[in-house]
From TrEMBL:
<feature type="region of interest" description="Disordered">
    <location>
        <begin position="1"/>
        <end position="50"/>
    </location>
</feature>
<feature type="compositionally biased region" description="Pro residues">
    <location>
        <begin position="28"/>
        <end position="46"/>
    </location>
</feature>
<keyword id="KW-1133">Transmembrane helix</keyword>
<keyword id="KW-0812">Transmembrane</keyword>
<keyword id="KW-0472">Membrane</keyword>
<feature type="compositionally biased region" description="Low complexity">
    <location>
        <begin position="104"/>
        <end position="119"/>
    </location>
</feature>
<feature type="transmembrane region" description="Helical">
    <location>
        <begin position="56"/>
        <end position="78"/>
    </location>
</feature>
<feature type="region of interest" description="Disordered">
    <location>
        <begin position="88"/>
        <end position="128"/>
    </location>
</feature>
<protein>
    <submittedName>
        <fullName>Uncharacterized protein</fullName>
    </submittedName>
</protein>
Amino acid sequence: MSEQTPVTPPWQQPGDRFGSGLVTTIPGAPPRQPPPPDEPESPQPDGPKRRRQQMLIFAGIAGAILAVGLTVVLIVVFSGGGDPFRSRAEAPTDVRPPLAQACPAPTGSPSAAPTRAPGALPPVTGARTTDTEAGISYKAYGAPWEPWTDVWRAGTLEVPYRVGQHFVTEQYSGGSYHASILSAAVPAADNDAVTLNLECVGRQVAADVRAEYYPQPNTMDPIRDELTTLGGRPAYVSEFRLHFSAAGLTATEELSAVAVIDVGKTTAAVLYVSIPGTHKQWDRAIDEVFASVRPV
C-alpha cells in the first residue's frame, strides 16, 4: 500500500477570504444601536358618527330609568287602593252632638245672672218626679196626670224624653193629643267643655219644639225668653203660646215652655211643659214645675 501527500482545501487556506473563524467587532468601536420604534399614529378626532352613538347610548339609559319609574308608580296606584298623590289627609268628620256643633262652649260667662251664687232654696215637699239621667227633680201631680212610660225622640234634635207625666186631652185623626211635663238629657258640649252655651242651646231646643212638635204652620206669642236660674243652676227659659189648626183637632192653641238647665255635665237637662188650650186650668203648671226644680 502506498501513501499519498494530503492536499489542503482552498477554504481552509490561511489568509483566504472564505476561511472560517469567530466574528468580532473592532476593538474601540461603539456598540450598534437598535433601530428606533415606529411612531404611534395620532388619534382620530371624534366625528358626527361617534357623537350619534353616544347620544343613542344616553337615550337608552334614560328610557330604561323612565320605564322603571313608571312601572313603580303604576304598581302603587293599582295595588294600594288609594290616591298616592294625596298630599294631606281628608278633614276628620265632626262627630260632636248636633247641639255641640251648633253651640260651641262660651269663652266666658254668658250672663252674670245665671252664675251668681244662689241663695238658700226653699225646701221641697210633696210628690216629685226624679230624672237621674237629666240630673234634676221637679213637682209631680196626681190625676189626671200619670207617669210617662215611653221614650219620645222628638224633633230634628231627637231629644229623648224618658221621664215625666202626661195625660191625653183628646183623640183626633192624627192620633192622641197630650198635656205633658217631660224631661231629658241632651249632649250639648264637647267632652272637655266645662260650661254650656245655654242661650244658644235653649234657643235651638225651643225652635225645634215649635217646628217639630206642633201642627204647621203656626204662629207664636212670645212670653218669656231669658237666662235665669232654676234650682240654683244656670238655665235658659223660653215660654210662648202657639196658635195652629189641624183637621179634627179641637185645640187651636197651646201654652208651652222649655227650660235648658246646666247641671254641671256635658249633657244639659231639658224640661218641657205643654198645656193645650182646651185645658187652660193647668197653665199654672209651668210656673209651679219650674219653681220646683232641684239638681240631683
